[in-house]
Design goal:
about 425 residues; alpha/beta; Aspartate Aminotransferase, domain 1; Aspartate Aminotransferase, domain 2; seven-stranded mixed sheet; 13 helices; 17 strands; about 15% strand; globular; binds pyridoxal-5'-phosphate
Length: about 425
């Protein structure tokens, strides 16, 4: 028996105690067949409960009008509070450190207003080279906002020549070398391109030992890898909910602010009424009295319709248990790697998995030497939904809540058939 035998994948599925959650998602059907969906790192699939929860809010709006703020089944006034407990478990924070609000890039800017405060000699930002474009724009524009030239004040750490992932010791060396000039380090906790997971705990401690404020962009981390933001003493973090947290296109995002920064009057902040003390908010006093938690950074009342799907997804995370999901995720991704390695040998193909084996979450990024877009287009025609990055990288993330081992096998068979008939 080899890894592409159906009995092999079926055996793995039959032993998988989380397999039952697949039926709680809508799996897209293309050309009459369920897709082999590997883009949960880009847009997670729709939990079936999302429709029910959204419909309930529509019904309550219909029934109550403005009174829904108090009388809806889940009152809209404190609506954002319904997420804090379960989300805090996913990111390893305390509920009072975690807030659902706005969008990722918006939140990054708001957090940097508070946590990127260049002063004296300490003016630089350390980040990863070729960060996700939105992060690059955000960081450069924050620097310019402070009158600083990005080409001089952005320290970017990239892979070594001819390599794809970052040596984390290179980040530590840069921190040692430029530590007293760096105001803030902000890096993707899981790199969107290679899937590399950063050693967030030790890098945070290392940077903080140099007096640097540390923020993590967890767009590809939240709901994917285990995080302990509170215990790691991370200053702040932000993420979106439409990738691994399955809350729909452009879903409301989330942020974390460590409790030691709560209630600190010397930290500047852009403010709005939803950050104001709940007791006196509707007395509309002239002066802002911050909620003594991360909620002080909230601006507006909750976009309830946009947030409803997040409840559906968090219900499933809660039931499955994040630790169990991660355990399955490691097996699924290891199986994907085994399948790819088997096919590479069988078909004498040259693939390179550029995701470091010991530093990864769900995603594998695959460089397919000698093959270009036609291979990817063929996969798409066969119902494999993956992600293509020029010139020849395929990103795939089997997701433990809804992908099966059989999904991985079926993809492998399609790839093998193609490579056997189309030589590079
Ligand atoms: C997905 C992603 C974004 C997207 O930003 P939005 O504000 O949600 O549009 C930003 N940064 C990283 C690292 C991402 O992976």
């Amino acid at each position: 028996m080899n890894v592409l035998d159906k009995t092999y994948s079926q055996e793995l599925d039959s032993k998988d105690s989380l397999a039952k959650y697949r039926k709680d998602f809508h799996i897209p059907v293309f050309s009459g067949k369920q897709a082999l969906y590997f883009t949960g790192n880009s847009l997670g699939l729709m939990p079936k409960l999302a429709e029910k929860y959204m419909t309930e809010e529509l019904e309550d709006w219909k029934k109550w009008g403005v009174e829904g703020h108090v009388h809806a089944r889940r009152p809209w006034m404190p609506y954002h509070e319904f997420f804090s407990e379960s989300l805090a478990k996913i990111v390893g924070g305390k509920p009072e450190e975690v807030v659902v609000m706005g969008s990722l890039t918006n939140n990054l800017h708001l957090l940097m207003v508070s946590f990127f405060r260049p002063k004296g000699k300490r003016t630089k930002i350390l980040c990863e080279a070729k960060a996700f474009p939105s992060d690059q724009y955000a960081l450069a524009s924050q620097l310019r906002f402070h009158g600083l030239e990005p080409s001089e004040h952005l320290i970017e750490i990239g892979p070594r020549h001819g390599e794809h992932h970052i040596h984390q010791e290179d980040i530590r060396s840069a921190l040692d070398q430029y530590g007293d000039q760096i105001a803030m380090m902000m890096i993707g906790g899981v790199n969107y391109y290679t899937g590399q997971v950063m050693d967030m705990k030790n890098l945070t401690a290392h940077a903080q030992s140099k007096g640097i404020i540390v923020g993590w962009d967890l767009a590809h981390g939240a709901g994917n890898v285990e995080l302990q933001l509170h215990d790691w003493n991370v200053d702040f973090a932000a993420w979106c909910h439409y990738k691994y947290i399955n809350s729909g296109p452009g879903a409301t995002a989330g942020y974390f602010i460590h409790e030691r920064h709560h209630g600190q009057s010397e930290i500047p902040r852009f403010e709005g009424w939803w950050g104001h003390d709940k007791e006196t908010r509707f007395e509309m006093p002239d002066t802002f009295k911050p909620i003594p938690t991360a909620e002080a950074w909230q601006l507006s009342n909750a976009p309830v319709m946009a947030m409803a799907p997040l409840r559906a997804s968090l219900d499933l995370f809660e039931q499955a248990g994040f630790h169990n999901l991660r355990t399955k995720s490691e097996k699924l991704t290891a199986y994907l790697q085994e399948v790819l390695e088997f096919i590479a040998i069988e078909t004498v193909s040259n693939f390179e998995i550029i995701t470091p084996r010991k530093e990864r979450g769900a995603q594998l990024s695959l460089l397919v030497h000698g093959y270009g877009k036609p291979l990817f287009d063929h996969l798409t025609e066969q119902g494999v939904i993956a992600d293509w990055r020029e010139p020849n990288v395929i990103r795939m993330a089997p997701v433990p809540l809804y992908n099966s081992f059989e999904d991985v096998r079926a993809f492998g068979q399609i790839l093998m058939n193609y490579l056997n008939t189309n030589r590079a």
